[in-house]
Amino acid sequence: xxxxxxxxxxxxxxxxxxxxxxxxxxxxxxxxxxxxxxxxxxxxxxxxxxxxxxxxxxxxxxxxxxxxxxxxxxxxxxxxxxxxxxxxxxxxxxxxxxxxxxxxxxxxxxxxxxxxxxxxxxxxxxxxxxxxxxxxxxxxxxxxxxxxxxxxxxxxxxxxxxxxxxxxxxxxxxxxxxxxxxxxxxxxxxxxxxxxxxxxxxxxxxxxxxxxxxxxxxxxxxxxxxxxxxxxxxxxxxxxxxxxxxxxxxxxxxxxxxxxxxxxxxxxxxxxxxxxxxx
Length: 279
Hints:
Distance between the termini: 65 Å
Helix content: 25-40%
Order of helices and strands: HEHHEEHEEEEEHHHHHH
Largest sheet: 5 strands, antiparallel
Radius of gyration: 22 Å
Number of strands: 8
Shape: globular
Number of helices: 10
Number of domains: 2
Structural class: alpha+beta
């Protein structure tokens, strides 16, 4: 099967794409780690088109020089009305011409140039039904078919007709992530075993490979939290150290915050024995 013309045009613009399933209820990539394999290489894309005929296509923001705003239409797939929420957000303010998709579910996807601004990746930011897409996040693009309605995605304005513009300041402020906390170092008396354990945990986070970073942070955070729960390690010191290591390998503040909160909740329920921690 030939590579769809619209996919070829996106690739020629430098947008990185990968094939995804169009089976009802599925949005998964057509193969393992498809997101990591996303590319604008026409030969590779053409090979995928032959291997996965009638597949859907998704564009990943990272490496494409763009970020997107996915505004949901209310219905069977989404409870919130993201289109209305975005209309209310704009509230008469200027919005530059931009590439825009009408999804097969009735929603809208708006594309903007990414100049390195910090964009939240949390669903429902700044309002329910509005989902910023940045970094390794992706969106479905034409000529894909919606997984439920079986209606086609279509360009309202294509990026080869209207280049992704710089987002206005008010929009960037609305989708900016929350400010990062300033962790205050608290000097606490820790055991030698606890110090060594924390040092090993930090090292493992530093060495975590692509695709394993969140999982590694979660596992090491759980181990550290067990010592904190036993009173063998200061919580602020431990969080500060893990947070710094996670930021060093490129995890975002929201990712780190959510992962550490989960790990510390679990670790608090299973503290190490204080006597073991002193050996």
